[in-house]
Amino acid sequence: MARGTFANIRLFNKFMNKQAPQTIHLLTGETMDVFEAAERYQQAGVPLLVLAGKEYGSGSSRDWAAKGPFLLGIKAVVAESYERIHRSNLVGMGVIPLEYLAGDTADSLGLTGRERYTVLMPEQLTPRMLVDVKLDTGKTFPVRMRFDTDVELAYFLHGGILNYMIRKMAEN
């Protein structure tokens, strides 16, 4: 499942500036399959973030489509917009769905994907709140957290819906 994530040959990878299921492993500069790069990042303890365009997750709305990014070590996705069910499935996997503010895109913000990102999350979280993303360059930009309900926020705080349900069952 993880090996097939982002492996569609028709997927246009702006990071590579071509249609390819590959990426550049930033720690070594090597071009490789997304799966192999993700494995290396996990071994190095580097959490991953995806920069996406409009309607991220369109197509298959099955929960498997959200499990793949989770298994690759992706902790957050910043998108212009989300396919509704896919966004909900990302939340269920414990992946943070972040949305650019109106008018912002990766291009308009000058994001290349080569930066290091830190999502600045306050201790008190509320659904749909604004948070800042800080780059290693010192630049920050605001995004909206797309935990749309208190229940979705609870899933995230427990590490996903499975952990949430296990804890709820253990309480009873």
From TrEMBL:
Its cofactor is [4Fe-4S] cluster. Keywords: 4Fe-4S, Iron, Iron-sulfur, Lyase, Metal-binding. InterPro entries: Aconitase/3IPM_dehydase_swvl, Aconitase/IRP2, AconitaseA/IPMdHydase_ssu_swvl. Pfam families: Aconitase_C (PF00694). It comes from the Eukaryota. The keyword Iron applies. Gene3D superfamilies: Aconitase, domain 4. The keyword Membrane does not apply. Belongs to the aconitase/IPM isomerase family. This is Cytoplasmic aconitate hydratase. It comes from Liparis tanakae (Tanaka's snailfish).
